[in-house]
Amino acid sequence: MSNKELVVIGSGPGGYVAAIRAAQLGMQVCLVEKYPKLGGTCLNVGCIPSKALLDSSELYHQIKHQSTSHGIKVQDLNLDVETFFKRKEEVVTQNNKGIDFLMKKNKIEVLIGHASFVDTNTLEILSSNGERQSFSFKNAIIATGSKPNIPATFNYDKKRVISSTEALSLGEIPKSMAIIGAGVIGLELGSVFARMGTRVEVFEYMDRILPGMDLDCAKELQKSLQGLGIQFHLSKSVTKVQASKSKAEIHFTARDGQNQAVLSADYCLVSIGRKPYTEGLNLDKAGIQLDEKGRIIVDSELRTAASHIFAIGDVVQGSMLAHKAEEEGVFVAEILAGQKPNIHYHLIPGVVYTWPEVSSVGWTEEQLKEKGIPYKMGKFPFKALGRSRASMDTDGLVKVLADQNTDRILGVHIFGARAADLIMEAVALMEFGASAEDMARICHPHPTYSEALKEAALQATDQRAIHF
Length: 468
Prior knowledge:
Layout: E1 3-9, H1 13-24, E2 29-33, H2 40-45, H3 47-66, H4 81-105, E3 109-112, E4 114-119, E5 122-126, E6 132-142, E7 146-148, E8 161-162, H5 164-167, E9 176-180, H6 184-195, E10 199-204, H7 215-227, E11 231-234, E12 236-243, E13 248-254, E14 261-265, E15 267-270, E16 274-276, E17 309-311, H8 322-336, E18 350-352, E19 357-362, H9 365-371, E20 375-381, H10 386-391, E21 397-403, E22 409-416, H11 419-431, H12 436-441, H13 451-462
Parallel strand pairs: 1-2, 1-6, 2-3, 6-17, 8-15, 9-10, 9-15, 10-11
Antiparallel strand pairs: 4-5, 5-6, 7-16, 12-13, 13-14, 18-19, 19-22, 20-21, 21-22
Helix pairs in contact: 1-8, 3-4, 3-6
């Protein structure tokens, strides 16, 4: 039986990045992946394909609704649905090949099969053809990610009641779609189909969309999505979903159980969250423990109860974000190399890739109020930007929250064009403990969307925005 220096289980953003960093640091690395294609959920049925569909739908919507304002007249605009979904597959394939190349470049051994622990130092790999192989290892990293969390009462059949996985490869633009959950995944995919003409209705148990993110940004995004025709059913509890051959029926009530109703749609997309995927790993044989939510329990160095076995990404506590998993992958590789890395979990940004986008880092106003931290705020609207008026992207705002006494930036929240990219200025400044005045005094190029950050910081400093 062979011995491996480091085995990484799972080839998603956490796993393959951990493998590459470990290889860079001189370790002999073996990467084990259950499926034939590397990249995990993010690359194959998550982040990458969803962004491809988002970009295609945004382009279609812009041509259809804004081209005449630019003096561009388009006749007989048609949607080739087959090509619409085929382009997404091509983007995914290109990324798959990219990871394959990186594995070869870094001399990382790749094994395809389902991994399970035999004991604390032995893994067994079951391939798709039934062959088994076992080997011992010095260290291991569990990076098996997550899967959609779908209650049994929703009768998930992958045909009419679907998850994001099926929605990304639907192969048609339906007339109607119900979405359960007004979080990131539901809103992103809902916006894709709404732009293409689907009647989209979103059900959310909370009284707002995007629970946990900035309320002002969430309200503005809701207005924008309603402009696309999306209808929201907030403070609603979905009790049951039933599928027929051609429809899905959503049974729902108010949160207090009153006013029962039923809505019918071509499809019902369930997007109420994800849960750690650890099935079949036989974690108990390695002495690895789970918490009440099924997450692997780790210490500050991401070590499990078996100290030579680590866990990262969606299977441990924290936000289920690809970039969080990547940071943890690098962190563990460097720990194994004897280095002293650090992760500032509070400064991991979150993004919603609708259009306009939403991004956030640090504390929200609601969190600061709960903690009793005195703060001051500066807001600036995109409609006051010359760049936004030129591009017709006037929906949006930037909110900067700073400590009332020290002026240190505590949180930045953006709703608007290119918010996903703009948030990195805030992340960088907050990593170095910058103040709102520091942000305000940096020279920002004109005309750009980034000027909204400068103006919001000026407002937070002493209410002295120049252009509003």
